[in-house]
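Lab channel / #folding
Pinned by the channel admin:
"Please post every new chain as: sequence first, then the structure tokens as a reply. Keep commentary short and put observations after the output so the thread stays searchable."

First post following the new format, from NK:
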Amino acid sequence: MQIILIFIESMPASRPYSRTRIMLHWLSAGVILWASLTGFIVAQLPRGNPVRQVIDILNPQITTLFIPFFLWRLALYLRAAPWWRSGATLQQRAATSAHMALYASISAVLVSGLFMMSAPWHLLGLIPMPQLTHGVAALQTAHDCHHAACMALAWLISAHLAAVALHQLGGQPILRRMRWA
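Reply from TO:
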């Protein structure tokens, strides 16, 4: 286990993020954008629509498989986060708070997504996944929580992208820190 942690966190001093954190960032971005876009599309389609049926099967698979990677990313973030540092500037504290809000909303989306499943299902056709919520009212509450969490996440992602753009336009190329090479 120690060898894995050393590999995970080893990086040149000139890099603010390890390759592992960068890889997990872009994996997260891809999964979240896919699930968000297809989720909003599905919400506009009637229940019997074949595109909706495929997405309704695919998205729980993708997002459930994503959960361990998200937890890994969250653990690495919490281990390195400056939120506990007393000398952090106001801008650093604001950025840390925004990132914590992103992590909290992603967590809420993933958890509520599991709780809104209306029937047992199989992950990759192999691993049985139980229905966690029973009853019409409880399922509706889970759906409502999921939709609220998705909207909060969409807002936070928009704010995140706007902040990145503002930094880039202001001459602070922070996006460079998330480059693979």
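NK: Confidence is low (pLDDT under 50) at residues 1-13.
TO: also worth noting, The chain has one domain: 2-178.
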